[in-house]
Amino acid sequence: MAALDPESGGGGITIRSAQSSRLDRPTPMTAMERTRTEIAQQLFDAFNARDLDAALSLLHPDVVFEPVSGAVLNDGEPYRGTEGMRCYFADVRAHWRELTVNPVHLREAGNAVVALGHASGSSAAGALHDAPTTWVFKFDGPLVAHIQIFSDERLAREALGLT
Questions:
Q1: Separation between Cα atoms, residue 43 and residue 141, nearest integer Å
Q2: Proportion of the chain above pLDDT 70, given as a percent
Q3: Is the residue at 76 inside a domain?
Q4: Residues 66, 116: Cα–Cα separation, whole Å
Q5: In which domain, by residue range, is 92 found?
Q6: What single-letter DSSP state applies at residue 16?
Q7: What are the pLDDT digits (tens) for 3-35?
Q8: What is the pTM of this model?
Q9: Distance CA 158, CA 163 (A)
Q10: Is residue 4 a part of any domain in this protein?
Q11: How many domains does the chain have?
């Protein structure tokens, strides 16, 4: 690509290759450059899109995940590590026709992000409608190492027909 070079003393032309023009473009931010709030929002987006690979790229390999539905679907145990997250996504597919999370307010608090919002979904047995939900994401460096969700377990049990 040809461009005028004002420093060449009289309108000379400088030739730049396509490669050098690509280097001038901003590159995607690495995990270290993103704020914790942005990473938490990306996790919400990955969950709503059921994009397991995108979610795993934001999670520590030894992540501990404690969703409200874990009390119902995972014998009261948290989902642990990459395999645990694969199981969680499979449980969501198996038990929910639809499940979406909508964070309304995200705020960093030290090494964590707290998100306030609601969850909605439907299963063969019932539904959740804008259930108030709080998520706490704890970080280890740029990766989420622990996620805990606070909501009304009774609502989750009713929606899944397990009351």
A1: 16
A2: 73
A3: yes
A4: 16
A5: 33-159
A6: -
A7: 444 444 444 433 333 333 333 333 344 545 789
A8: 0.74
A9: 6
A10: no
A11: 1
